[in-house]
Amino acid sequence: MSSRGSDGEASASEPELVHLDPATTAVVRGVVPMAGLRDFFDASFGALARAIEAQRITMLSPAFGLYHGSPGETLDLEVGFVTDRAVRPEAGVVLGSLPGGRAARLTHFGSFDGLGSSWERLRSWMQTRGLPAGEDRWETYVTRPSPDMDPRDLRTELTWPVAD
């Protein structure tokens, strides 16, 4: 179930608890200043596309950003894709993984500017239910952004593992 505000502002689906299988990923890792985030994503997607194509690996998911720890002036993150098998490291692309187990999830509808409030909503939902939040969490970019699209059409899935 999802909602969108009547004036088109960002909104989110109802949070839910899901069980995830671990997943193999191809990623580019980095510690990036907030101001450099967009450039890091753009460069990472270029390197990932070249490595994945050269190694004939199949992508099994939309792009994601896996965030380690709490954000500050910099972000410790991995940008990548779930893949059908391990990538051979090349040109900054390395093997990674997404954890399995219980996780809280919701879908954010709208521009990336509103992601902070959706993350806060998910954190609050977990806290209310006594679900301890893991240190890492990720965004799956269900809708591929493009320069000419309406940002209100973006869909981003937020996943926050439960620390068991």
Automatic annotation (TrEMBL):
UniProt-listed Pfam families: GyrI-like
Source domain of life: Bacteria
AraC effector-binding domain mapped to chain residues: 13-163
The protein's name in its UniProt record: GyrI-like domain-containing protein
